[in-house]
Write a structure and sequence with these properties.
Layout: H1 17-25, E1 44-49, E2 55-62, H2 65-83, E3 94-102, E4 110-116, E5 121-129, H3 132-144, E6 151-154, E7 157-161, E8 166-167, H4 168-174, H5 180-200, E9 210-216, E10 221-227, H6 251-260, H7 263-283, H8 285-296, H9 303-317, H10 328-340
């Protein structure tokens, strides 16, 4: 089996006019007091290390005092737009505590730490370069998953809220040593997460691109896996790139499923999640149709990758209609359509 690495670093795609109209209609587009380029006025940086002294591949940025005062005010304003629908009364209680820059990744994000001066509580948000692929990914997450997600767009700047949880790789290192009951729950959630990714074709869900949210319950804990990286929405041509079980980084969770779940149980969990996705698609039908119509007309991958994915999904689903797809949006539409028609398939033999 070929490795599941991206073919090369993904390019960013501009937002087309129809997607712009969609974002305005659903209040995602708003005038921001600061753009991504304004964050590049820093004068110095130092590597950001974790608690063990390991380089996180983030850098903490430093600004001139007068620059930081101006940028800090604008960043607090953006946080208010993101969290309180622009209620500027909260700005007086906010302060920028730290600005970090990610040295890898497609959107080169800045992570902003905001402190509430009244109680020293903190939160984060991100400033990124615009990429229509990522916007489609964020919207499909909102419409087809159980998760809501906050983001704003202006010109070439994307603002995203922080998604709280334990990074998948850290979770596997420190939180898999639990009782059998919770191991089954973890394995179950990974199967459901895989279904959500594969139906809407969100790729590259190796362990550091998602988080695990743990909620204590009456007996044991409940687990929710949430994507945090949406750059690889409907971009790659390989079908397996959209199936998290094929990434070696996820093997520890895969092992739990192999140890505790029968093929019949796996199928049951798959069907449960597909039913939930179909229900969400029906509830959001008008908005989902508008979004997919934007994707239909958008070029968010190469013709070669579109052709490859169409052929591989045609073989996977035993449905030749995928072979004639001309865009990634059309492929996503057909994938979701199969769920609505209860004809979506994924062999349990692929859970290896």
């Amino acid at each position: 089996m070929r490795g599941n690495k991206p073919s090369k670093k993904k390019v960013a795609f501009a937002v087309n006019p129809s997607l712009n109209d969609y974002l305005s209609k659903y209040n995602r587009r708003i005038k921001l007091p600061l753009q991504y380029e304004d964050m590049q006025r820093h004068i110095a940086s130092v590597p950001l290390l974790d608690k063990t002294g390991t380089d996180t591949l983030w850098e903490t940025m430093y600004f001139d005092e007068w620059e930081l005062k101006e940028i800090g005010r604008d960043l607090c304003h953006i946080y208010a737009l993101l969290k309180t629908d622009g209620d500027i009364q909260v700005i007086d209680h906010l302060q920028v505590a730290q600005i970090d820059f990610c040295t890898f990744g497609n959107t080169n994000p800045y992570r902003i730490r905001i402190i509430n001066k009244l109680n020293d509580n903190y939160d984060h948000f991100y400033i990124k370069k615009i990429d229509s692929s990522r916007i489609y990914g964020l919207e499909l997450e909102e419409l087809l998953s159980p998760n809501q997600i906050g983001y704003l767009v202006d010109k070439n700047t994307l603002i995203e809220e922080h998604i709280a949880g334990i990074p998948g790789d850290d979770f596997m290192k420190a939180h898999l040593a639990v009782d059998e009951f919770n191991e089954i729950r973890i394995a179950k959630e990974f199967i459901k997460f895989t279904e959500r990714c594969f139906v809407r074709l969100l790729g590259d869900m190796r362990s550091y691109n998602y988080i695990v949210d743990i909620t204590p319950d009456i007996e044991g804990s409940q687990y929710r896996i949430r994507a945090i990286d949406f750059d690889q929405q409907s971009y790659e041509g390989r079908k397996n790139f959209y199936l998290p079980q094929f990434f070696k980084e996820n093997n520890p969770i895969i092992a739990l499923g192999m140890a505790h779940l029968s093929p019949e149980t796996v199928t049951q969990y798959q069907l449960e999640e597909r039913s939930l996705i179909a229900r969400r698609a029906k509830i959001t039908k008008g908005r989902l149709n508008l979004l997919l119509n934007c994707m239909f007309k958008d070029q968010i991958s190469s013709d070669k990758k579109i052709k490859q994915l169409g052929l591989e999904l045609a073989d996977h689903h035993k449905n030749k209609s995928f072979e004639s797809c001309k865009s990634m949006g059309e492929i996503v539409f057909k994938n979701v359509q199969l769920v609505l028609q209860k004809e979506f398939t994924q062999s349990i033999l692929e859970l290896k």
